[in-house]
Design a protein that fits this description.
Blueprint lengths: L4 H6 L15 E3 L6 E3 L3 E2 L6 H10 L3 E3 L8 H10 L7 E6 L4 H15 L4 E6 L10 H12 L3 E8 L3 H11 L4 E5 L5 H13 L3 E5 L27 H9 L6 E2 L6 H12 L4 H14 L20 H12 L4 H8 L4 H5 L18 H12 L1
Parallel strand pairs: 3-4, 4-5, 5-6, 6-7, 7-8, 8-9, 9-10
Antiparallel strand pairs: 1-2
The structure holds iron/sulfur cluster (2 copies).
One iron/sulfur cluster binds next to helix 11.
Length: 370
């Protein structure tokens, strides 16, 4: 049965949890008041609908998708699976549109594909500078909320945390912020994430596995192969992101039931000193590979490459095993950026303070996607 806009507005903030959810931890998502499982389900790379179905059975109640994922097919798949369960789950989606008309059109498509008359959180997607949060997009959120098509206004970001997060808090209209947050970013992100929660805004963490890099053998830049795997540190990484109360939920991408089961463990098991040791060793290994999205190199490449974004696209391929997703994002870059070859540079203008071998990594991205 579908939930009407009127009935959801009248419904209590806490949805009835299914019987199978005794082992699922719930946290309140800031001022939204809704109780979400502390581990949600990032659907971006999920191709097997039965994994989502299983997650619902297990008591996970937050499912995240976006208009742009797999050219809209992800929303369609998620909508098909969640339709019979709509009353007991929260759904979030996103629009990248900067203008009101396109954003509203996106929302209508999202609602149709998700087979629902409202979504719970509607994010303005990938706003990595304050300027990208346009007045028109905010107006679209306000209209959608008034019309009952969305319950809560959200904003998501990958980069530019130090500028975007304070700006988003200041707006006063954003109910939930979806941000990159993981053990590799602790120094910069800890106070920022806490400031979101202190402002009463819901905190949803993404990219909590720091790229899921394949590290079971020494990494060879020349022979790197796209391969999805869960490093031994995956469980520790998820527990790390949940160890503080001001992270209300995390939405790791989930591909199969093994990952699902492991994520449930992260809700049940406390973060321990041994986990810190595992993550410290892991961080040392991924430092040449993993961009912590600190923003230091933004605008530094004389050829104008969006370095951090390109490193993220490479992570989609080499970390998540999603080559098509990496290439799709690469091909959305301006043609001039796609045409640049780092191999033509005699050196590299970017010396990453976190140890990322920028030139090597971008050459790899260009080799894979260009
Ligand atoms: S490549 Fe290095 S400097 Fe640039 S954003 Fe990533 S971590 Fe920061
Ligand atoms: S090698 Fe460095 S400076 Fe040259 S294009 Fe690549 S990222 Fe830019």
């Amino acid at each position: 049965m579908e939930v009407s806009r009127r009935s959801f507005l009248a419904a209590p903030a806490v949805l009835a949890a299914p019987a199978a959810s005794q082992k699922v931890e719930f946290r309140t998502l800031g001022r939204t008041g809704i109780k979400v499982s502390s581990v949600g389900f990032g659907c971006m790379v999920t191709s097997d609908p039965s994994v989502i179905e299983r997650a619902v059975d297990m008591g996970i109640n937050l499912f995240d998708t976006a208009r742009v994922y797999t050219s809209g097919n992800n929303e369609r798949m998620v909508g098909n699976v969640l339709k019979p369960h709509r009353q007991k789950v929260f759904i979030s989606s996103k629009t990248k549109a900067p203008d009101k008309a396109t954003a509203m059109k996106d929302l209508e498509t999202t609602l149709r594909e998700l087979q629902t008359d409202h979504i719970d959180i509607w994010y303005l997607h990938a706003k990595d500078t304050p300027e990208q949060i346009t007045a028109e997009a905010l107006e679209a959120q306000a209209i959608a909320k008034k019309e009952g098509k969305i319950r809560f206004a959200g904003l998501s970001l990958h980069n530019g945390h130090a500028e975007v997060i304070p700006a988003a808090i200041k707006l006063g209209s954003i109910d939930v912020i979806l941000t990159t947050y993981n053990f590799a970013m602790a120094a910069t992100m800890e106070p920022l994430v806490k400031s979101i929660a202190d402002a009463g805004i819901g905190v949803v963490a993404m990219k909590v596995m720091a790229g899921s890099m394949k590290l079971d053998r020494s990494y060879d830049f020349d022979r790197a192969k796209a391969a999805m795997q869960r490093p031994g540190a995956a469980l520790a990484a998820l527990k790390w992101s949940l160890r503080v109360p001001y992270v209300h939920t995390a939405i790791p991408s989930i591909k199969d039931t093994d990952q699902l089961e492991e994520n449930l463990r992260a809700m049940r098991e406390p973060y321990r000193p041994d986990d810190s040791k595992v993550l410290a060793a892991h961080l040392e290994k991924i430092s040449p590979l993993y961009c912590r999205m600190c923003g230091t190199c933004k605008g530094v490449c004389p050829q104008g490459l969006p370095v951090s974004d390109m490193l993220r696209y490479l992570t989609y391929s080499e970390g998540y095993g999603e080559y098509a997703l990496g290439r799709e994002n690469f091909q959305l870059m301006p043609a001039e950026a796609q045409a640049v070859r780092c191999g033509d540079c005699s050196g590299c203008a970017i010396q990453c303070p976190n140890g990322v071998q920028v030139k090597n990594r971008l050459m790899r991205a260009q080799e894979l996607f260009a």
